[in-house]
Design goal:
373 residues; alpha/beta; eight-stranded mixed sheet; oxidoreductase; mitochondrion; lipid biosynthesis
């Protein structure tokens, strides 16, 4: 399997209706076109930051010629992730120059390769390597180094969603604290795509999970879905704060590791429920509230508080293709045998992107919106 990271190069395509410039260094967007020269393709473009459904427009672009080390990709499916929404709002850690094409994750199929391409072949399923890639389009031309292959026998939605959220879950479970069967991990935002991946990957490791979610309508159905994925315990934030929750720790050892994607009081409750010398990893801040750390957690309980960003992880291991290939291979292996399924999804036809964008920002929504090309 080729290394997962590489520097993509892009020759600008002729443009219609404004066009799209190259994005941030390392992974510029593709030339946006249909898989035949002289035709056009649909791209979801934003020229300013704001609420996603208001700033994203559909635009057509022409196909540039495929260079000798370039490939033509036909997109199959691409999710709308929280990071994509934050990027559209101008609230993410990296931003492409505007106008830009939305989307950082998705799966495509190779349609054509340049004369000197060696890493992929027509028919291969591929994922974009870097962030700020612009996957919300029907097709594009990019460097072969900007792609990594995945098995074609993966379920389509698994392939489209495997390289961001499951990768985040995998790294957090493997990189911070050595875990063995029987250990316990606690997490908030357990219904998120990362949370669902944590449940499944942890279960495959024999690691038990305590999963915290917000109270909501039809809570029972959500609890059933998470337990069907392998969740050992599912509690609301209110239940975790109650004295009755202490009964849980009579059944289980205290968690060695906690994952926080919410912040605020929810993060503080995680800190109060992990073992001495445990670790809390923050990878998101959905409440937009700061992480408040009790002094006693640091001084008396020796708790370690760290952060994780998948984009930074990829940058750090940019030259370690073997490490990254191993991670993706293990995730694909779990997906192929049904131990790692796609998150709860809602498939939306590409032309109905406005419906998907509006749904993606609604509260208490556990389903990830997937644009299907």
């Amino acid at each position: 399997m080729p290394g997962l990271l590489g520097v993509a190069t892009l020759r600008a395509a002729p443009r219609l209706g404004g066009g799209v410039r190259a994005a941030l260094g390392g992974s510029p967007p593709w030339g946006c076109n249909l898989p035949r020269r002289g035709h056009t393709a649909s791209c979801l473009v934003y020229a300013e930051h704001g609420e996603p459904a208001k700033v994203v427009k559909m635009e057509e672009q022409l196909l540039p010629p495929v260079g000798e080390r370039e490939v033509l990709i036909r997109m199959l499916a691409a999710p709308i992730n929280p990071a994509d929404i934050n990027m559209l709002q101008g609230k993410y850690g990296i931003q492409p120059p505007l106008p830009a094409i939305g989307g950082n994750e998705g799966v495509g199929q190779v349609e054509e390769v340049g004369s000197k391409v060696t890493k992929v072949k027509p028919g291969d399923w591929v994922l974009p390597v870097g962030s700020v890639f612009g996957t919300w389009r029907t097709a594009g031309v990019c460097s072969e180094d900007a792609m990594v292959t995945v098995p074609r026998d993966l379920p389509l939605l698994s392939a489209a969603t495997i390289h961001v959220n499951p990768a985040t879950a995998y790294c957090m479970l493997h990189d911070f604290t050595p875990l063995k069967p029987g250990d316990v991990v606690i997490q908030n935002g357990a219904n998120s795509a990362v949370g669902q991946a944590v449940i499944q990957i942890a279960a495959s490791m024999g690691v038990r999970t305590v999963n915290i979610v917000r109270d909501r309508p039809e809570l029972g159905k959500l609890v059933e879905k998470l337990k069907a994925m392998g969740a050992d315990f599912v509690l609301t934030e209110e239940e975790l704060r109650k004295v009755e929750a202490k009964e849980l720790w009579k059944k289980l050892p205290k968690p060695r590791l906690a994952f926080n994607c919410v912040g605020g009081k929810s993060a503080t409750e995680l800190l109060r429920n992990i073992e001495r010398s445990g670790t809390m990893v923050t990878y998101g801040g959905m409440s937009r509230q700061p992480v408040i750390i009790p002094t006693s957690a640091l001084i008396f309980n020796d708790i370690k508080v760290l952060g994780f960003w998948m984009t930074q992880w990829k940058r750090h291991y940019a030259q370690d293709g073997e490490r990254q290939a191993r991670m993706l291979s293990e995730l694909c292996s779990l997906a192929r045998v049904g131990k790692l399924t796609a998150p709860m999804c809602n498939e939306v036809p590409f032309h109905d992107f406005q419906v998907a964008l509006e749904a993606a920002v609604k509260p208490f929504l556990s389903e990830k919106q997937i644009l299907v090309m």
